[in-house]
Design brief:
Tyrosyl-Transfer RNA Synthetase, 3-stranded parallel sheet, mainly alpha, binds tryptophan, two-stranded parallel ribbon, Rossmann fold
């Protein structure tokens, strides 16, 4: 059986929160256990430099994200788990792809266009003010990440669909000019995948400052859950589960039976304080062991680094022959 190659990357600029866990980490780890797929999962640290010039933050985020995935049960023997910057072949491929990528294609990238638009609306003289070449050409680097391993399926959020189309476009251009080297990748958008609301009821996101950190202390988790916005209904008054961030967050961690039970408790007028207590106990119960493992890994990170090095070795074993072929196709080769 040939396995389907599934690949995804996580930009190392943040510390994982509950929304990342329910929406991305947990489903990716579950998917990686299937035996009809081969998973590549990597820390996109070169992507971090596109938007973040704070070395401490990039370092801390890389460490925390790696520790989180391992603590949540990612099995590095089953998955190729690596750090982008450990695979120099990706950057070599990046340049080759840059040379077949039309500039006009990058001009159309949403992220770039949005920044230009902001400058124009702000009456800046230079519409490209504050925009680096890294940001402009970022879809090429993302294409290199994907094409380097001939990934077939790439699970991403909706905001990344255009980048996958660009990766297909760039792969097609290369294949057309130099000969078949790359598989055209497809985005996988999990329609059903969970988008968790944050403390204020909007989508949980770093940019809204409404997140619940995944592995803070138990006390902080409790405090965060207590801050989830509710309404002024008194104990005993029926509450609407379908208009409740607390209920939605609880649901992301519950079986259908547990959800039905909570729904009943809402309808019977459970007090908000009581509901929050139940939700905390429930989520904490699922995270406690993982949190402990996370703290151990963060305190003695040698294991993380060794795991990433072993992952890099596996990844490079795959990248090297493909890069060699690609270079040969372009005429970059030993003199004979
Ligand atoms: N750009 C992606 C994001 O912001 C992260 C990423 C980088 C990625 N390279 C990738 C995702 C390759 C999938 C495949 O979410």
């Amino acid at each position: 059986m040939t396995k389907e190659i599934v690949l995804t990357g996580i930009t190392t600029t943040g510390i994982p929160h509950l929304g990342n866990y329910a929406g991305a980490i947990r489903p990716a780890i579950e998917a990686s256990l299937r035996d009809d797929v081969e998973s590549f999962l990597f820390l996109a640290d070169y992507h971090a430099l596109i938007k973040c010039h704070e070395p401490e933050r990039v370092k801390e985020s890389t460490k925390a994200i790696a520790a989180t995935w391992l603590a949540c049960g990612l099995n590095p023997d089953q998955v190729t788990f690596y750090r982008q910057s450990d695979i120099p072949e990706i950057l070599e491929l990046n340049w080759i792809l840059t040379c077949v990528c039309a500039k006009g294609l990058m001009n159309r990238a949403h992220a770039y266009k949005a920044l230009v638009q902001e400058n124009v609306e702000g009456n800046e003289v230079d519409p490209d003010k504050g925009i680096t070449m890294g940001l402009f050409a970022y879809p090429v680097l993302m294409s290199a990440d994907i094409l380097m391993f001939n990934a077939q399926k790439v699970p991403v959020g909706k905001d990344q669909i255009q980048h996958l189309e660009m990766a297909r476009d760039i792969a097609g251009r290369f294949n057309h000019i130099f000969g078949q080297a790359f598989t055209l990748p497809e985005a996988v958008i999990e329609e059903s995948s969970m988008i968790l609301p944050g403390l204020d009821g909007r989508k949980m996101s770093k940019s809204y400052n409404n997140t619940i950190p995944l592995f803070e202390t138990e006390k902080k988790l409790k405090k965060s859950i207590n801050k989830i916005k509710t309404n002024l209904l008194e104990p005993g008054e029926p509450k609407d589960p379908d208009d409740s961030a607390l209920f939605e967050i609880y649901s992301a961690f519950s079986t259908p039976e547990q959800i039905a039970e909570m729904r009943k408790a809402y309808e019977e007028g459970i007090a908000w304080g009581e509901a929050k207590k139940v939700v905390f106990e429930h989520i904490n119960g699922q995270l406690a062991e993982k949190r402990e493992r996370y703290n151990e890994l963060m305190a003695s990170p040698t294991y993380i680094e060794e795991t990433l090095q072993a992952g890099a070795e596996k990844a490079r074993a795959r990248a090297t022959p493909l890069l060699k072929k690609v270079k040969e196709l372009t005429g970059i080769t030993a003199i004979k």
